[in-house]
Amino acid sequence: MHPNNDKTWHDWRWQIRHAIRSLDRDFCVLFGLDFQRIDAVQRRYPVFLTPYAAAQLTPCSPEDPINRQMLPHPDELREEPGIGPDPFSETGGAACCFGLKQRFPDRVLVMASAACAMRCRHCTRKGLLAQAEVIRTPEQLRTAIEWVSAHPRVREILISGGDPLLLSDAKLLAIVRAFAALPQIDAVRIGTRVLSTLPMRITPRLATALGKFKKVWINTQFNHVRELTPEACAACARLVEAGIPVSNQSVLLKGVNDTVEALFDLCAGLQRNRVRPYYVFLCDPVSGIAPYRVPLRAAKALERELVIRLGGLAMPRFVADIPGAPRKTPI
Ligand code: SF4
Hints:
Elements: H1 12-17, H2 25-30, H3 35-44, H4 51-54, H5 65-70, E1 100-104, E2 107-113, H6 138-149, E3 156-161, H7 169-180, E4 187-191, H8 194-197, H9 204-212, E5 216-220, H10 230-241, E6 246-251, H11 260-272, E7 276-281, H12 296-309, E8 317-320, E9 329-330
The structure holds iron/sulfur cluster (SF4).
């Protein structure tokens, strides 16, 4: 069912309200999944599928690249030696102040939302979002602004979560406005996956409002060319035409985009939509994502082949985020 002519379909709040939060036996049968094994996974790592997301799924195809990103995999519960739930100390680690973390001298991460429009199966913050310290009150925001003002080396703000675009326009714009108003800040980067998971969230009004700051950059995440649906392409266009640079950070995922053809189609599709293919990340050393990990050797071979086929503007950098490293590490 795709009520494309129904106004509610294009209402992002309606999409969130009608999300599937648990898979039942009938759903698993339809999608070729073993209910008992999937149920054990979803109890630990929940599911969240909007009607928009569910409409992208293919029945009886657990290995479909879109299904793999959205539906639980039994091997998510497989333990991997030396891999834990929080390698970057995102919970309980040293914070600058509530909701503000700094890994690099010129940038800070602002945790603005613990919610997402999808529970991506390969998420690096999987299992951590419920405990995330998220800025919710005007006092917390004021304290964060004061901290940044007192640290003039900080010139870039990364607003992330969860997905900050799950906030209301008013809350999101208040956060962006507060940081963008600091003269030391050159860029307010928003990390969001709604372009691929909930594109109707990018309303013309929101895109225009964000563009007016003239400091906002959007980093998003498409992992497969099929995520570039007509709705997603239209959402990208609204941002680009509002003057906002949009870049893509894919995750290299087994069974999703771990072939040269899949990466080529994705990068070419992004470029066609004026979205810059920026990074391809190796999966982080986080527990719960064993079925998606691509070995380093295979990633290097993919990068070598892709660079031959893609022009520089469409070629992403292959990097790994290594705990304790001073920057993203080229593979
Ligand atoms: S949108 Fe991002 S933070 Fe949210 S579940 Fe997906 S990968 Fe994780």
